[in-house]
Design goal:
mainly alpha, 3 helices
Length: 76
C-alpha cells in the first residue's frame, strides 16, 4: 500500500473517532469533558495537518491519487 493510501486511511479513522467523542463527552463527568475537549482540539489539528499533506501531494482529499495505484504496483 502506498504511503498516501495509508495516510488517507488514518484520516478516515480519525474522522470516525472524532465523531464518537462528543457522544462520550455528553455523558461524562465535567472533569472528563474538559479532557475530552482538549483531546478533540488536538485531534482536529492532526486531521487538518493530514489534509494539508494530502493536498500537497495529491490534490483535494477525497479524490483518488492518480499515482497511488501505479506506485502500489511498483512496490509489489
Amino acid at each position: 500500500m502506498h504511503w498516501l493510501d495509508k495516510l488517507r486511511q488514518v484520516l478516515r479513522l480519525d474522522e470516525e473517532e472524532f465523531s464518537l467523542w462528543p457522544e462520550i463527552a455528553a455523558t461524562a463527568p465535567d472533569g472528563v469533558k474538559q479532557i475530552i475537549n482538549s483531546m478533540l482540539e488536538r485531534e482536529k489539528k492532526e486531521m487538518d495537518d493530514i489534509r494539508k499533506i494530502l493536498q500537497m501531494y495529491c490534490g483535494t482529499p477525497g479524490y483518488p491519487d492518480p499515482y497511488s495505484s501505479f506506485a502500489e504496483k511498483e512496490n509489489k
